[in-house]
Amino acid sequence: QSQELSEGRIDYHAALLALQEHGTRMVCTGKMHTDRICRFDYLCYCSEAEEFVFFYSNSSVMLPNLGPRRFQPALLDLSSVEDHNTQYFNFLELPAGALKFMPKPVFVPDVTLIMNRFNPDNLMHVFHDDLLPAFYTMKQYLDLDDEARLVFMEGWGEGPYFDLYRLLSGKQPLLKEQLKNFGKLMCFTKSYVGLSKMTTWYQYGFVQPQGPKANILVSGNEVRQFAKIMMERMNITGQEDTAKEGDGTEEEQEKGKREDYIVVFSRSTTRLILNEAELIMALAQEFQMRVLTVSLEEQSFASIVQVISGASMLFSMHGAQLVTALFLPRGAAVVELFPYAVNPEQYTPYKTLASLPGMDLQYVSWRNSMEENTVTHPDRPWDQGGIVHLEKEEQERIQVSKDVPRHLCCRNPEWLYRIYQDTLVDIPSLLEVLKEGLKTRPSVKKNKAASTVHPGRVREPQCQTSVQATNEAKLTVSWQIPWNLKFLKVREVKYEVWIQEQGENTYMPYILPQLNYTFSENIKPFTTYLVWVRCIFNKSLLGPFADVLMCRT
Ligand code: UDP
Predict the structure, then answer these.
(1) CB 122 near ligand 1, within 6 Å
(2) Which of 72, 271, 276, 435 measures 20 to 30 Å from 289, CA to CA?
(3) Closest residue by CA, ligand 1 atom 16
(4) Of 248-262, 340-354, 364-378, which gets the smallest average pLDDT?
(5) Nearest atom of ligand 1 to the alpha carbon of 297
(6) How many angstroms does the Cα of residue 490 sit away from the middle of ligand 1?
(7) Within 10 A of 252 (CB to CB), how many other CB atoms are there?
(8) Percent of residues, the chain, with pLDDT higher than 90
(9) Other residues' Cβ atoms within 10 Å of the Cβ of residue 258
(10) Of the candidates 187, 183, 113, 108, which has an alpha carbon nearest to the alpha carbon of residue 153?
């Protein structure tokens, strides 16, 4: 295997000399261990010690040079899950001179991304924690291209979704376990360590109950770009591309349009929908659409994505398979079903995904509120929701509870008991929430993003004042359109003006359609007003305020 890695692509002698002379070099981004990614020349890994090694020499570089703070608590997070103490990265230090007493290093010529997968057995974790972050980390560093080598250091086996990780680069990813096959000392010529957290939208509840991340930095656009490229690499032709685009005549639209259909994503081992056939019939009847089912147990992942990428609605029990909503076309609806006593508001990884700005998906949740329609599994192992290992009293308390109280991840027995229930879906109540929750009939929209261009600053803001009487004054504010507006077709352009009397801590906001306005109400003579003006496109796209105006009446 070491042959495969270094084959003719590296001058071994030169590499060894460089390592001995220059040692390891590290330059990182990020102020904190939680937002850090480091780039290394000649980072080594000692498989015997299971440690990364930094070789010091006269020309080695270590930025940031944290001294012992490097261990408080770590240099960086190796997974995209923030500050998890099982995911820390650090290295040992050795003088380059020690190389003389060590096994001969094997050099890895590929540019390498070294990271941890967080939970490669679970599809939500695979996409949210690993694939999206790795994809965009690779976009951040140009040399992490299709030839890059990924190395997964969390120590797990390939797992059921390894083929998805293979899509990230043209080279086979390496597992920690495999590194020892390359020899006792392995040196990565060029490597990056750590993952960008920019694309993650959910925190799993390690320190506070699970929920959307506080400061989400990703939009549907980036998720969709990722989805598109993953589909290309899976050799899936998006349904949207195959649908012929007419020139707008109804006939042509009709020809180009495929049939709308609904997908039910079914789970076959746990958290079952007990009346799936009835559900499918009811949906077909209600929406007059074909209903297809998919399941991870019965189909290839690519074929599931192919189906989902053309669906108008996706129904599923809460669960990791719902992350595939990221392959839905714009305009589609996600309908997430929750078992008895589980509050949909508290478990929102898929709602948050569907609601990312620019995802253009509708989202509706339904919750089983009829206890007679739930089937519990108290006798199963604890990790599938069994509770028989608990004290009798605690078992009874859990069994009569109607709502799982807020809890932390990941072993709360009441949560596991409830989330692993099977459910007989009450059709009338489901149709009721759909009627209420769906704003428009879900359907596959043309692959066109809603405009997301923000207004620039308004230009040449000015004010003029006049005093009418001892208790009467006027304030006229005018401005010009933002510079970028002349290049845009915007449905609705409005301006917002804030007027604040100097020294007061409140202000009066006004929304105006025109480019000037004379204020006379609440305007006092011989007073200084601070005036801010900004432009707003389509009610929600806010521009920046122009420099504040000081207007003295
Ligand atoms: N899974 C599945 N069918 C099942 C049960 C689970 O395909 O009947 C998949 C699920 O989508 C996830 C993995 O197996 O990728 C682990 O499921 P688990 O119930 O542990 O996690 P959850 O879905 O609650 O995140």
Answers:
(1) yes
(2) 271
(3) 122
(4) 248-262
(5) 7
(6) 44
(7) 13
(8) 92
(9) 12
(10) 113
DSSP string for residues in 344-400: GGG--HHHHHHHSTTT--EEEEEE---GGGEE--TTS-GGGT--TTS-HHHHHHHHH
Cα separation of 400 and 403, whole Å? 9
317 lines ligand 1 (CB under 6 A): no
* Pairwise CA distance, residues 118 & 44, whole Å: 23
Q: How far apart are the C-alpha atoms of 134 and 226, rounded to whole Å?
A: 11
Measured in whole angstroms, the distance separating CA 325 from the mean position of its chain's CA atoms is 12
pLDDT digits (tens, 9 = 90+) for 451-485: 789 999 999 999 999 999 999 999 999 999 999 99
In the numeric block, the tokens 């504010």 are attached to 477
Tokens standing for residue 527:
């007073």
For 35, counting Cβ atoms within 10 Å of its Cβ (0-12 exposed, 13-18 middle, 19+ buried), the class is middle
- Which tokens hold the place of 126? 């695979």
**3-state secondary structure (DSSP) of residue 23:** coil
CA distance to 2, 358, 361, 468, 542, per residue, from 454 (Å): 52, 14, 21, 39, 6
3-state SS, one letter per residue, for 420-474: CCEECCCHHHHHHHHHHHCCCCCCCCCCCCCCCCCCCCCEEEEEEEEEEECCEEE
Within a 13 Å sphere around the CA of 387, how many CA atoms are in the beta-carbon half? 22
Q: What are phi and psi of 494, to 5 degrees?
A: -130, 165
Chain segment 136-176, per-residue pLDDT in tens: 999 999 999 999 999 999 999 999 999 999 999 999 999 99
Rounded CA-CA distance 525/514 in Å is 25
Give the mean pLDDT of 392-413. 97
Candidates 349, 378, 388; CA nearest to 365 is: 349
CA nearest neighbour of 403 among 450, 454, 338 = 338
Q: How far apart are alpha carbons 117 and 87 in whole angstroms? A: 9
Question: For residue range 395-405, what is the model confidence (pLDDT) as tens digits?
Answer: 999 999 999 99
> Measured from the CA of 271, which atom of ligand 1 is nearest?
8
| DSSP 8-state secondary structure symbol assigned to residue 259 | P
- Its pTM stands at 0.94
Tell me if 79 CB under 6 Å of ligand 1. no
The token pair that represents 3 in the structure block = 């042959």
Give the count of beta carbons closer than 10 Å to the beta carbon of residue 80: 27
